[in-house]
């Protein structure tokens, strides 16, 4: 990006090469694209992600229900992974055999993870189920969805800026290769005796 300052300094410099000016213009265009395109890409992707995630939030909240289950008995199995969005590893969780009623009225029975430290027969606890009573994950909440959308927007902006800067570096690298090739050709034309006394006589 230092080449941008060269646009002004190199205007009347007799040592200025065309590639110097082109490199400075490429750097300026890159800076303008990063300042304009990256935020725009972030805003567009963030908005799309927000719309999609909020729709998922509404769908999940409509199709998942909090029901009350009753412990039949505790199971002596290893601990299950808790829900990463609703709890930490320190939370007390136990595997139990439980009964519950589905939102459609059907009776359900199965192994579930209960947030009870020492579950006993007849204890009650809440769990999430779908319309037919099958165990479901806790529905996504609106705040978490918005956070994910914002992160997606920032990621898209950063990726756009990285791609633009990568394009600039590729262009400059190609220009350097061409410059070095021209220097090699110039040295070949000058010959191995360039600079020696009596050369060309």
Listing every helix as H and every strand as E from the N terminus to the C terminus, the arrangement reads HHEEEEH
Sheet-strand content, in percent, reads: 15-25%
The largest pleated sheet is described as: 4 strands, antiparallel
What's the rounded overall pLDDT mean? Answer: 82
Q: End-to-end span in angstroms?
A: 47 Å
Shape: rod-shaped
By DSSP, the count of extended strands is 4
Radius of gyration (CA) equals 33 Å
Oligomer class: single chain
Put simply, the count of helices is 3
Helix content: 40-55%
Structural class: alpha+beta
- Residue stretches low in confidence (pLDDT < 50, at least 5 long) are none
The strand line-up of the biggest sheet is: 3-2-1-4
Task: Explain how this protein is built.
The chain has 201 residues and is α+β, with helices and mostly antiparallel strands. The chain is built from three helices and four strands; from the N terminus they run ααββββα. Helix content is 51%, strand content 17%. It is rod-shaped, with a radius of gyration of 33 Å. The model has no long low-confidence stretch (mean pLDDT 82).
Quick structural gist:
With 201 residues, this protein is α+β, with helices and mostly antiparallel strands.
Secondary structure layout:
Blueprint lengths: L2 H7 L8 H46 E11 L19 E8 L5 E8 L9 E7 L11 H49 L11
Helix pairs in contact: 1-2, 2-3
